[in-house]
Amino acid sequence: MAGMEGTPDLFALDARLGDEETMIRDTVRRFVDSEFLPVVAEHFEAGTFPEELIPTIGEMGLFGMHLEGYGCAGASATAYGIACRELERGDSGLRSLVSVQGSLCMFPIWRYGSTEQKERYLPGMAAGEIIGCFGLTEPDHGSDPANMSTRAVRRGDEWVLNGAKRWITNAGIADIAIVWARSEEGMRGFIVPTDTPGFEAHRIHGKLSLRASVTGEFYLDDVVVPEENRLPDALSIGAPLSCLSEARYGIAFGVVGAATACFESARDYMLERPQFGRPLASFQISQIKFADMLTAITNSQLQAFRLGELKEAGEIRPVHISMAKRHNVRAAIDVARMARAMLGANGVSLEYPPIRHMANLESVLTYEGTEEIHGLILGQEITGIPAFR
């Protein structure tokens, strides 16, 4: 009797994709298989990202693909989610590059920027010619961004920025930074070219997670930016939080790809590796583990697809995204750990993907809102009582 082959999709959810969404899925999958997977292990080991692939990603229209106009593809919310899924099947670092560029850097310009800012930056960012980074998290402020230390002081038609941001994807290769700072007028967002005097960026080394991703920190020492670089419609903490919601949406889809890669690796390995005269996949304990993994992946697929439906209908709420991000990342970690163990000693080798995904997902569990913060968002929805303080 033939077993399951290819990507696990027990409820045939991909069969519901439209022609454009299917084309995007297949295009991204081919890119990941042919261009990214052959090199990701060496980049993970070296702690580098294959920056030479950025122009190709731009040519594919993946940067800001869910945005309309200004050179952006204007694809559906589900298409963007599916693209994130296929990218993270390669590596969380690859999906992070696209997610940060589109959801954290292009989206605030598209949503809160002036027409001049959109025309100046978005076409180049969509093409991958201008790379952005998103400066919200600080050395001493992660889950409580409203109390950040970075300050913006208005001086006539200019703003003077001082502060530091840490754990910033793309810092070190970015051409512009979206910087969030507190001012006397409230939270404000700024587009800061990284060659501005007083702006200094450094890469963070020694990471054991997201190694095939550029992560860094940057410092603002009396950085002067003109009023025209302020995002005019970003007037409260709600602005950066809305950007995080965009990114978390992509994560909810993306981690399904990471879990899928781990499941496929373990399934193929166990079918081919004999022990005690028969394939490891034939033992009861192996099949129970496969059943648990497939159930976790299917539950995550269902949440992600429903999230896409809600987003396209304009009915999505932050609590929906919190549940899907929290559930799907935890499910992906569990699948990755189980797959790693099923591969035995080979499971710790970069020849197989589970250990790489397992390490990456520890970061994904933390960034864009920790598992605990999303739990508290759900707790407030259930009880009506905020428990953040």
Q: Can you tell me the CATH topology of the largest domain?
A: Butyryl-CoA Dehydrogenase, subunit A, domain 3
From the spread of the alpha carbons, the general shape counts as: globular
Tell me the total number of β-strands. Answer: 9
Structural class, please? alpha+beta
Main sheet makeup: 4 strands, antiparallel
- Give, in order, the helices and strands: HHHHHEEEEEEEHEEHHHH
Q: Work out the strand percent.
A: 5-15%
What is the CATH class name of the largest domain? Answer: Mainly Alpha
Q: Strand arrangement, largest sheet?
A: 2-3-7-6
* Low-pLDDT regions: none
CATH superfamily of the largest domain: Butyryl-CoA Dehydrogenase, subunit A, domain 3
Instruction: Calculate the mean pLDDT score and round it.
Output: 96
Please tally the helical runs, counting DSSP H or I stretches of 4 or more residues. Answer: 10
Number of domains: 3
How much helix, percentage-wise, in residues? Answer: 40-55%
